[in-house]
TrEMBL record:
InterPro entries listed in its UniProt record: 6-PGluconate_DH-like_C_sf, 6PGD_dom2, ApbA, Ketopantoate_reductase, KPA_reductase, KPR_N, NAD(P)-bd_dom_sf
Origin superkingdom: Bacteria
Pathway the protein takes part in: Cofactor biosynthesis; (R)-pantothenate biosynthesis; (R)-pantoate from 3-methyl-2-oxobutanoate: step 2/2
Protein name listed in UniProt: 2-dehydropantoate 2-reductase
Domain Ketopantoate reductase N-terminal: start-end pairs: 6-145
Keywords of the record: NADP, Oxidoreductase, Pantothenate biosynthesis
An example molecular function term from Gene Ontology annotations: 2-dehydropantoate 2-reductase activity
Residue stretches making up the Ketopantoate reductase C-terminal domain: 171-288
Catalytic reaction(s) noted: (R)-pantoate + NADP(+) = 2-dehydropantoate + NADPH + H(+)
Length: 292
């Protein structure tokens, strides 16, 4: 039982999903959800079986015991500043990429857990209200310095009780790089060519996928990041196949005229290329072809 409230910061797709799942569980303390304009008091969630449920959220006075940061990567630091949290408040970061995680791990004066999640959610297009739990996945949690294993295990147990399967791990950096590789290939290509993920399995874009995977494999070897069991290209191809009917998050952002997570996803790879003096022309071209 968690008595102190948890605060979810960012009321978008993943923030609403995490808040709704936690609020729906019986044996978990109060859950608050803060969007750009303050706290929300209720939510609508569509379950993976298609049914809808409405959930009440808390407006707690007590400071949060954990803040789940669910904004896009470029917005995380500003959202934390605006939330005016007590120094030392533990964070759980849900962002894709590998930018905000090392920065906040170095700068935030409290524990910073990072998550690599395969949960999938999207907001209902207006005028409908609510979040759709598109696919149940798994969330891996850990901190980059390996100092908060007990906290990661407790948070993972609570998420799992709430129906968001989660595990603590000692190699969250590796899991974040594996996820980043998927996003670095699928997201910019689908956004540039305005195609569903599955189109990347077919020529001519399948050749582009192979070329990007080869550059990523070279960078990851230089950075001593172990490859996924299927190898970099096998792993990315498996995700393309599993999400063939999806519109990637970057394509959705581009179509909606929103900012993208380009810098959080591609910049860490370009930084590694500079560090190790490796040429990555395809990744650089993707970076320059993608709006920020
Ligand atoms: P989203 O755009 O739906 O939600 C982000 C929310 O953050 C928006 O509602 C925005 O208004 C809010 N926000 C921005 N600045 C804020 C501020 N200063 N204060 C409060 N709220 C603020 O994005 P999302 O799909 O929920 O993704 C969130 C993160 O999770 C991203 O890094 C994404 O890559 C990652 N992710 C998403 C999914 C998914 O299925 N949606 C899956 C895995 C990982
Ligand atoms: O994470 C994704 C995204 O769109 O950001 C993938 C796995 C590519 C699914 O679309």
């Amino acid at each position: 039982m968690t008595a102190a409230p948890w605060l979810v910061l960012g009321a978008g797709a993943l923030g609403q999903l995490f808040a709704a799942r936690l609020a729906a569980a019986d044996d978990i303390g109060p859950i608050a959800l803060r969007g750009r304009h303050g706290l929300l008091n209720q939510l609508r969630l569509q379950e993976t079986d298609g049914s809808w449920r409405s959930l009440a959220l808390a407006s707690p006075e007590a400071p949060p015991a954990l803040v789940i940061v669910a904004t896009k990567a470029p917005d995380a630091e500003q959202a934390l500043q605006q939330a005016q949290l007590a120094p030392g408040t533990p964070l759980l970061l849900l962002q894709n990429g590998f930018s905000v995680q090392p920065r906040l791990s170095a700068q935030w004066p409290g524990p910073v857990l990072c998550a690599a999640t395969t949960e999938a959610a999207y907001r209902q297009p207006p005028p409908a209200i609510g979040v759709v739990h598109a696919a149940a996945g798994h969330t891996w949690l850990g901190d980059l310095a390996g100092q908060h294993r007990t906290m990661a295990a407790a948070v993972a147990a609570t998420l799992t009780r709430a129906g968001l399967a989660a595990s603590a791990c000692d190699d969250i950096d590796e899991k974040l790089w594996h996820k980043l590789a998927v996003n670095a290939v699928i997201n910019p290509l689908t956004a540039r060519h305005r195609v569903l993920n599955g189109t990347l399995a077919e020529p001519p874009l399948s050749a582009e996928v192979a070329a990007l995977c080869a550059e990523i494999a070279q960078l990851m070897a230089a950075a001593k990041v172990s490859p996924p069991a299927a190898g970099w290209q096998g792993w990315v191809s498996a995700v393309i196949e599993a999400t063939a009917g999806n519109r990637s998050s970057m394509l959705q952002d581009v179509l909606a005229g929103r900012g993208t997570e380009r810098d959080a996803i591609l910049q860490p790879l370009l930084a590694l290329a500079d560090t190790h003096a490796l040429a990555v022309p395809r990744l650089r071209a993707c970076y320059h072809a993608t709006p920020a």
